[in-house]
């Protein structure tokens, strides 16, 4: 069964965006995955198609109304067991492990928030999993949804030309990825490390692992600590 993504948004024209190109776009053409959008505003009941209201208790901005968003979610997920994600800066950080879990399923439903946020009651009532792509705030959930789908689609079976290429990337083994080189052998006085042209595959793998550890220690020591905690646990 092909992976099926449904995105609930006020701006369906933002999709598929960059996912319509390159490997993801070709995979969509082959039917390996599909993407449909749901316009949240279609479920408003007043003549102005209002989807938001002022926050209870006062404050700046507007909040997406629970009744309207719930109707949109229900329309996209009737008798549907796909995970329901809400892109939110307060959500749990997206990890490669979670991406692989999502990619192993039948698909995903993604809700793109706007304004100040989403009424908490619909988050609870519809079992939305809040997901963050980083410690910063965007103007809406659409760019974040595209990033989540990009991460998922690229590791679906058969999407990458060489499935093994996905096994040696940053975060796959708890480490950042090792440095890469290609021809020419010498460029601006800088040489490709001799070990990489030695033909000794065992030594090359050892070097790559050492470099991955070095870079991770320098740039993301938290990943090493996390791996150590899991090992000791």
From TrEMBL:
EC number: 2.1.1.228
GO BP: methylation
Protein residues bound to S-adenosyl-L-methionine: 113, 133-138
GO molecular function: tRNA (guanine(37)-N1)-methyltransferase activity
Superkingdom of the organism of origin: Bacteria
Ranges where the tRNA methyltransferase TRMD/TRM10-type domain occurs: 4-225
Assembly description: Homodimer.
Designated name of the protein: tRNA (guanine-N(1)-)-methyltransferase
Species in which this protein is naturally found: Rhizobium aouanii
């Amino acid at each position: 069964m092909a992976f099926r993504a449904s995105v609930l948004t006020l701006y369906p024209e933002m999709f598929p965006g960059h996912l319509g190109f390159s490997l993801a776009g070709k995979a969509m053409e082959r039917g390996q995955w599909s993407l449909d959008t749901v316009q949240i505003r279609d479920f408003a009941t007043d003549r102005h198609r209002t989807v938001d209201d002022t926050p209870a208790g006062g404050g700046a901005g507007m909040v997406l109304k629970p009744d309207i968003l719930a109707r949109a979610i229900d329309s996209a997920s009737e008798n549907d067991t796909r995970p329901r994600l809400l892109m939110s800066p307060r959500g749990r950080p997206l990890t490669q492990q979670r991406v692989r879990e999502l990619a192993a399923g039948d698909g995903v439903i993604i809700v793109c928030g706007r304004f100040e946020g989403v009424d908490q009651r619909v988050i609870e009532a519809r079992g939305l999993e809040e997901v963050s792509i980083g410690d910063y705030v965007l103007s809406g959930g659409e760019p974040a949804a595209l990033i989540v789908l990009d991460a998922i689609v690229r590791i679906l079976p058969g999407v990458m030309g060489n499935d093994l290429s996905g096994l040696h990337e940053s975060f796959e083994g708890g480490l950042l990825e090792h440095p890469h080189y290609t021809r020419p052998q010498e460029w601006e006085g800088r040489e490709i490390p001799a070990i990489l042209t030695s033909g000794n595959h065992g030594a090359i793998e050892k070097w790559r692992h050492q470099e991955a550890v070095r870079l991770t220690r320098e740039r993301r020591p938290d990943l090493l600590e996390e791996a150590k905690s899991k090992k000791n646990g």
